Amino acid sequence: MNLDTPLVYVKGVGPFRAEMLEAKGLVTVNDLLHYPPFRYEDRTNLKPIEKLAPGEMATVIVEVQATRLPKAGRKNLGMFEATFGDGSRYKLLGKWFHGAYLANVLVEGTRVALYGKVEFDTYTGELLMMHPEFEPLSAGDEEGDHSLHTGRVVPIYEAAGKVSAKLLRVITRRILDSVTPPDDFLPSQLREQMKLPSRWDAMRTIHSPPEDSDLRLLNAFRSPAHLRMIFEEFFWLECGLALKRRKAKTVEGVQFQLTERVREKIKAMLPFKPTGAQKRVLGEIAHDMAEPHPMNRLVQGDVGSGKTLVAAEAAIIAIENGYQVAVLAPTEILASQHFAYFKALFQKLGYAVVMLSGSYRPKEKAKLRQLIEQGLAHVAVGTHAILEDDVKFKKLGLAIVDEQHRFGVMQRLKLMEKGAKKPDVLVMTATPIPRTLALTIYGDLDTSVIDELPPGRRPVVTKHVFDSRIEEVWSFVGREVQAGRQAYVVYPVIEESDTTALKAAEKMYLHLRDTVFPDFTIGLLHGKLPQSEKEGVMADFKTGRIRILVSTTVVEVGVDVPNATVMVIEQAERFGLAQLHQLRGRVGRGGNQSYCLLVTEKLGETARDRIRTLTESNDGFHIAEMDLRLRGPGEFFGTKQSGLPTLRFANIVRDSELLEVARTEANAFISHPPSEEALRRAIQYIRDHWQRRYGLVQVG
Ligand code: ADP
Ligand code: MG
């Protein structure tokens, strides 16, 4: 048996179980070795029932003596009860809500290990465990030696379909006993320097911890064995990213000239003095653009930090060098915003800015495509549809891309510029990204951070209001509007296809228009409106004709109306942190004090944490970190976001410090490998073992 042996050939697996394992991404022996237990249980010190004390967590080995499934009724919630004994005269009770299914598992006479919190049942005076974890011990041969499951520190795996934690333990043990120990590819110098155990030792410890293991370290994923595997995972990921960055530096790109003329044009365009951070970031971008290979740079900055202005400066560099610029936005609304913004900025310079919208008539589109193809349009704004085959740029030099579309767009750009020089790419994020994510998902890009807001910004005052006091919110909105300002009222329609939610938003709009604010002009904006209507509503809000804009989250990104000072978010508990911060960023863009009112019902605990984070902080980077911690890496971008590498041992939130170390070591290793041979071996290893897992990392 070796690492590549399919699990289906391991004794005790078979086709049926192999399928369930595969559903978890476990196909080969190696995959299973990379499937660590999520918890360890100390079953060395088993206690007899007699010695149990209420309040403690404990494991007991007992036998089912009697079970009871009271008749299903509303009150007892399908409670299943079992009485356990261990040969003494003492008894232990186990109770499970909705436990009817257990009747077939915990049959009389079954020996089980129970693990749970010991309680005192006030009704019967007996000891009790509510919902204990349990593992039947008396099953047949294939479940292996009992000594695997008791009397030691036992690894607990997350079951894979019908493949139980216990069976996984058995299969993994079989693998450990018969697989040829794999080579250790981690550079030995690094291993010694960091005092890491060998790969094989680490794997064995993780799946089968020795007697004297420190249970606390194991459960915290902090045993030397865990540290080794976590470090390794980050190390190869970061090596892959470093190789990718290095390879990009060998591709031929446009070498833009930074002439005096370029500087003059930028100066002529700037409507205000750039902040220090904007200047610094432009410097970083300009440096990249002057290099003979394509730029791949990510610009991060908090809402309102002025990322778009910096992008416009970069566009001038490209245009003055005789190239075209593509600006790609995630939605049509944002595309029209960018279109208006760039058109206004570039009017003085005489650049032609066009927008290609999916909703234009074919004739119109054909005309615009022609302008782009002939090089008459300097800037083309649109959704990523502008990179489709039928749109041909005469001389594309720079693509300014919204982060949300980065993956698709990068591929497109690769395809479209066949033979020609690759354009520079500037990726902009709407929200700050926690550093750990920036180092993983965005690790193939160079990063710039605009960490300063334009002067004169007053932080938005954020308040939490329960919906029972909504009338006060409306009177506040009324006062602000009376004073000449404007307001947003955002309604949670998460999926624009959700018609019930849309109806609710419409109802809200009618209520505000007809009952609450009959004297003000109110607009409604949502994703389902025809494009022309959306644009009309946005234009009316911009000019101030519409005083209050009721909207779904389509206003989330980029919308810029400095006179708007109030952001009311209805059912704020239903939004994620980053989204709330982004919505809040729509106000506070002018000189006036602005307010964000988060309206909610009664709150659960995590919702309360989210709301509190917002009322206490205006710092997008801090909020992003909190969001990552509260929701976990997988959820951070929502389900649609791809590109997060599959990490088996490592967790970028828990292990952020190791990630930093691994990154430093990986960069050092790639730029100064101990030998060419060592580097070649590493590249080969990444190709063979890690490329599939990290998806993103194509090292060539
Ligand atoms: P972001 O895209 O980072 O959210 P924007 O580029 O939309 O931010 O800028 C937010 C607002 O601040 C815009 O109204 C913009 O015109 C303005 N702005 C940008 N840079 C400056 C600056 N240096 N000084 C004053 N206002 C600025
Ligand atoms: Mg370049």
Question: What does this molecule look like?
Answer:
The chain is an alpha/beta fold and 700 residues long. The protein folds into four domains: 45-151, OB fold (Dihydrolipoamide Acetyltransferase, E2P) (Beta Barrel); 181-250 and 656-700, no CATH class; 260-450, Rossmann fold (3-Layer(aba) Sandwich); 461-617, Rossmann fold. Helix content is 39%, strand content 17%. It is built from 23 helices and 21 strands. The protein has a seven-stranded parallel beta sheet, sandwiched between helices. Strands 16-21-20-17-19-18 form a six-stranded parallel beta sheet, with helices on both faces. A five-stranded mixed beta barrel has the order 2-3-4-6-5. A hairpin with a 5-residue loop joins β3 and β4. α7 (224-248) crosses α22, α7 packs across α23 (676-694) and α9 (276-289) packs parallel to α10. The protein is globular and about 90 Å long. The two termini are 30 Å apart.
